[in-house]
Amino acid sequence: RVPSQLTVDNNFAKLLGLFLAEGSYRHDVAKRPTGVVFSFGSHEEQLAAFTATTLALFSKSESKVLFRPARHLREVYTNNVVFAQFIKNLCGHGAGGKFFPTPTLRWSKIHLKNLLDGLVAGDGRINPKTGQINLKLKSRDLVWGARLVAATLGYAGKVSTVQQKNREILHYHFSFSPTAGYKRVLENDDY
Length: 191
Fold this sequence. Notes:
25% strand, single chain
């Protein structure tokens, strides 16, 4: 049973960011979502453990971790129809159809940071020399939502599009640096 209200905390914010990066759904024969699935690389044991614990807490259902060494995957899933439908309505579905949930834009900065940290943990690459974070996403709405959240946190960033050679697939890249010495953004919340 899913509660009628969910209290947003840092763990839920990070879980939602991880879902935006790594999440999908299980479906019944009528293509309705019946569960939530997170697909991590086989080496991402800590993310899988965090996700399993937090997912069980918020979905009020047992979470399972399935290790698939042949596919280099570690999947975390829960079967809860109500929770799956809630997440689908909140975040969209499919790699190209996800979006930042509108209610998150009113969250506190610490929750927004955890949301963005979850997205980066799932789909980000951090340049070890500069600290610059690069996200490669299929969803236009998701990448622009990430840029809006980053700007809210005072991180300047750039979005660009990349068309893969000999393919019709378009990807969006978002690059930003939380530690940049020079930022052309206003950091006065009272402005």
